[in-house]
Structures are given as structure tokens and as C-alpha cells.
UniProtKB/TrEMBL annotation:
Gene3D superfamilies listed in its UniProt record: SGNH hydrolase
InterPro entries, alphabetized: Ester_Hydrolysis_Enzymes, SGNH_hydro, SGNH_hydro_sf
Domain SGNH hydrolase-type esterase span(s) in chain numbering: 14-196
Molecular-function GO term, any one: phosphatidylcholine lysophospholipase activity
Top-level taxon in the UniProt lineage: Bacteria
Protein name: GDSL family lipase
Length: 211
């Protein structure tokens, strides 16, 4: 059963995977990734529902960055549905910049986002868990840092009754069908097929069948 209703506003929040080259000068720009695919596929299936999709993802963001811009880029927009996809940069900065985010800090920051949203809005929440694939080889070591953050996101989804898109397992399964680099050339940023995988999983989590 499709959970999106007539006139709903859906806001995508996150990092570069959500941002995906959107035009900052155009509020309706969705970029070239999964938000655009979701809008395209949903609009094709349910044109009569007039659902609006917005994208406020910003490349490089971590949980702390979302908190800093949450009022303007989320609460002021008053979405009916909030989709949050964050976490990989909270791991990545440990390895490329020596700037780690502990699992507790990640979970506390994520909880703050959710609490601020629930206090200000009646928005429903869909959480997209981060993933990493073992390509290049050094990405394998990231599991030590990312796995606890994925667990934290899942725990928050249970605690707050959010929907969850379980991307880490879905990308691992997809990498059995075709090598990891096909889905995410650097192990993090999805290919076109990878964005298609995210869009399909997101829509199915929302009860939308693509047939």
C-alpha cells in the first residue's frame, strides 16, 4: 500500500549521495541521483497525487552538519515526509582526515535531528542506512567504524518508529550479482545502477510497487 498521500511534500536530506549535483539556485532541483529517480518513477505511477519531492542534501555533510542547518533546510520547509540518508562521511573523515566521529556522537547527533523534527513538525520519518563496498580494497577496513553506526541507525529507527531502507545488506547482495565497482566505483558513491537500487528500495519501503 502506497504510504504517500495527495499533496504530500517529501524532503530528502543527506550528503553527496543525496546531493548528486543539484542546482543550489533552483529550489526544485533534485540532482542526478536517487531523489530524481524516485520523483520520476513515483510521478509515473501516481501522477494524480501531486506529491512534491525536495532535495537538500549537501556533499561532505556529517550528522553535525545536518544539525547546523536543520532549521532552514528542514524544519522551515515543513515536509510531510522526511528522508534522512547520512553516515558515510562520519566514517570517511576518520580515514582521510584523521577526524573521527564516535558511534555515540553519531547516534546522539542523529537523535537530536529526530527530536528537533518531532518537536516542530508532524513529519513521518524514513531513514536510509549508509553502506560501503569493498572497492578499493582499503574500504574493507572501514567496516570497523561504519558497522556500529549502521547498528545505531537501525536502533533509532526502531526507537522512533521510523521506516528503514536497509541499504548495506542490499548493496552487499547486489555485489554477488555483479562486482562491487559496478554498483559504487569508489565503494561509496553509487553508479547509475546503484542509484537505481536505492530508488527501488526506497519506493518499496514506502509501499510503492514498480511492477
Amino acid at each position: 500500500m502506497n504510504l504517500l498521500q495527495q499533496g504530500d511534500v517529501v524532503l530528502f536530506q543527506g550528503d553527496s549521495i543525496t546531493d548528486c549535483g543539484r542546482d543550489r539556485n533552483y529550489s526544485g532541483s533534485l540532482g542526478n541521483g536517487y531523489p530524481l529517480l524516485i520523483d520520476s518513477l513515483f510521478g509515473m505511477q501516481y501522477p494524480e497525487l501531486n506529491v512534491t519531492f525536495l532535495n537538500k542534501g549537501i556533499s561532505g555533510n556529517r550528522v553535525v552538519d545536518l544539525n547546523e542547518r536543520w532549521q532552514e533546510d528542514c524544519l522551515d520547509l515543513k515536509p510531510d515526509w522526511l528522508s534522512i540518508y547520512i553516515g558515510i562521511n562520519d566514517t570517511w573523515r576518520r580515514y582521510d582526515s584523521g577526524d573521527p566521529t564516535s558511534t555515540q556522537a553519531f547516534k546522539d547527533g542523529y537523535r537530536k535531528l529526530i527530536e528537533r523534527t518531532k518537536e516542530a513538525l508532524d513529519a513521518k520519518l524514513i531513514m536510509v542506512e549508509p553502506f560501503v563496498l569493498p572497492h578499493p580494497e582499503d574500504r574493507r577496513a572501514w567496516r570497523e567504524d561504519l558497522d556500529p553506526k549502521i547498528t545505531a541507525a537501525r536502533e533509532l529507527a526502531v526507537e522512533y518508529g521510523a521506516l528503514l531502507v536497509p541499504l548495506d545488506g542490499l548493496f552487499a547482495a547486489a555485489s554477488v550479482r555483479r562486482e562491487a565497482a559496478f554498483w559504487a566505483p569508489d565503494g561509496v558513491h553509487p553508479s547509475p545502477a546503484g542509484h537505481g537500487l536505492i530508488a527501488k528500495a526506497w519506493l518499496e519501503t514506502m509501499g510503492v510497487s514498480l511492477g
